[in-house]
Amino acid sequence: YIRCMKKILILSAAFAAISLSARAADVPTVSAADTAAITVLMNEMADIEVVASRVQQTTSNHEQLTKEDLNKENTGQNLPYLLSKTPGLQVTSDDGLGVGYTYFRVRGTDHTRINMTVNDVPLNDSESQTVFWVNMTDMASSMQSIDVQRGVGTSTNGIASFGASVNMHTLSLRDTTTHFTLAFNGGMYNTFKEMGAAHVVFPRLGDKQDGRFALSARFSKVNSDGFLYHSASDLYSYHSDLGYYGRKTNVVLSVFGGKEKTGMGWDGVDYATAYGLDGADRRYNPAGEYKDADGNTCVYPNQTDNYAQQHAQLHLTHRFNQHWALNAALHYTHGGGYYEQYKSGKKFSKYGLDNAVDSEGNAIKKTDLVQLKNLDNHFYGFVASAKYTREEADVQFGGAANNYNGKHWGNVTWTSVPYELPYDYEYYRSTSLKTDANAYAKANWRIINKAQEKLSVYGDLQYRYIHYLLDGINDEDLSAFDVNEHFHFFNPKAGLTYQNGGHMLYGTFAIANREPSRNNYKEDGDQKPLSERLYDYELGYTYSHPRFTVGANLYMMDYDNQLVLTGNMSSTGAYLTKNVKDSYRMGIELTAGVKITDWFRWDGNVVVSRNKILNYKDVVTLYDATTWDWIGEEERDFGTTTIAFSPSVTAMSLFTFDYKGLLAEIQTNVCGKQYLDNTQNASSMLKAFTTTNLNLQYQLPMTQWCGGRRVPQIRLLAQLNNMFDAKYASNGGSDMSYLQNADGSLTGAWPWFYAQAGINVHAGFVVEF
Question: What is the pTM (predicted TM-score) of this model?
Answer without folding.
Answer: 0.89
